[in-house]
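call fold(seq) -> C-alpha cells
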Amino acid sequence: MMKKLLPILALLLFAPLAHGQSYSTGTTKACASSASCATTVGLSFSAGDYAVVVVSHGTTTTCPQSSDTMTDSASIFSFSAASICSPDVNIGIIEAFVAKATGSNASVTFTAGYPASRRTRVLVLKYTGVAGSSATDVTSVTASTGTASLQSNTFTTTLANEVIIQCGQGDTSTTSYTAGSIGTGSGTVRQSQALDGGTTYVAACQDLTVTSIQTGITATMTATSGTVDNFGFVLSLKAPSGVVSHRASVINQ
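ret:
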C-alpha cells in the first residue's frame, strides 16, 4: 500500500503551487504641478514582497529620467533608477520602479519625486512569490500611433512561471482602457483615473500570471476613447517557487 501511495505523495509535495490572484483598490488622488506625488498604501508588506510602482507624468518626453526618484516612508524598499521608461513625443513618459521589501510594514507611503513640477499618476502594484533577486525578466518599450490599441512588441519569457505586466497611456483624450490579450490569455486591468480629477489622459496597467514559457507573444490593451497615440511598456517578474500572485493595488493620479 505504501509503495502505491509514494508516487501520489510525491506529486502532492512537489507539484507547483496554484497561481491565485486577488485584487483590491485603495484611494485615488490627483497630483498636479508638483515636484512630488505621495500616497499611503493601506497594505501590509512583508519581507520578500515586491512593489511595482508605475509613474506617468508630463512635461518631459525623454527617457530615461535619471533625476526621477522613488522612496518609501518605511524604508523597507531600496529603489534605484526606473527599471523601464517609455516616452511619447507629445505628452510625457511612463516608467516603473521595481523593488523587494526587506522588512514588514502595515502601511507604506510611496513618494515619486522629480526635478521640476509634473502632473502625475502613480499606480502601486504588490506581488508575492517573486524571485529573491534579479526578478525582472522581460522589459520592452512600445508605442502605437493613430490607433485605439496599445500593442507591445513581440517578447519571450525566460521561465514558465512569471507575471507579465503591461502598462500604457494615450497622449490625447484617452478616458479608459479595456483588458486585452497577453499571449493567448486575458489580462486584468489595474487602471488609474484621469489627471487632475478630469476624464482624460488615463494611464493603466494589466497583468497575467502564466505557467508556461511564452514565446514570441504580444500584449494588447484598448483605449475606449477611439483613435489615439498610445505608449507604454511590458515587464515581467520571475517566480522560482512557481507562484506569482497580484495581491493588491493602490492608484494615484
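Residues 18-252 form one domain.
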